[in-house]
């Protein structure tokens, strides 16, 4: 790898295959090469790194974990794959951790250089990109819930996701459909109804006469 220029490396990455010669050279002048040892974190869930990471060789796992350390593998990255683009587009923290599975060489492109490759922030294309990133984050969160949380946890997380804060109180406007909730959390309608009733009996949630649901603070810690 030491014999190859950054431009040679860029040309080998499918992500950059549509760049013009000038664009490719600009990227090549901006990237730096980093080597990650086996087990080393490329990015960490919940943090920001402000870079795009493109695998040149090796292999890395995209994973998420719960508070007890249980992990779910969301994807396995191979040479040519990249990570970090979601955070660069929406400026949010990484939704998952990426760990080198073996010694892995990576090209690192900074935020400002990456931003020059994006459409204008006021354009429709950029709006669509942000929308796609939001969907991907939701998908990662759903996979994590299905794999790591029991039905109680999945119902609680879904209720929180559906709620909006009003004068310091979390509330879901409109009736919460048990059938729709069951489809979201991957459980039967009957099971969701039992969980909702138990949460009400315990004072964790309160259903108002108009069908709206008020969420107590304790739901976030159960």
UniProtKB/TrEMBL annotation:
Family matches, as SUPFAM superfamilies: cAMP-binding domain-like, Winged helix' DNA-binding domain
InterPro entries: cNMP-bd_dom, cNMP-bd_dom_sf, Env_Response_Regulators, HTH_CRP, RmlC-like_jellyroll, Tscrpt_reg_HTH_Crp-type_CS, WH-like_DNA-bd_sf, WH_DNA-bd_sf
Domain HTH crp-type, chain residue ranges per copy: 149-219
CDD domains xref list: CAP_ED, HTH_CRP
Domain Cyclic nucleotide-binding, first and last residues per copy: 15-118
UniProt keyword list: DNA-binding, Transcription, Transcription regulation
SMART domains: cNMP (SM00100), HTH_CRP (SM00419)
Domain of life: Bacteria
Protein name as it appears in the record: Crp/Fnr family transcriptional regulator
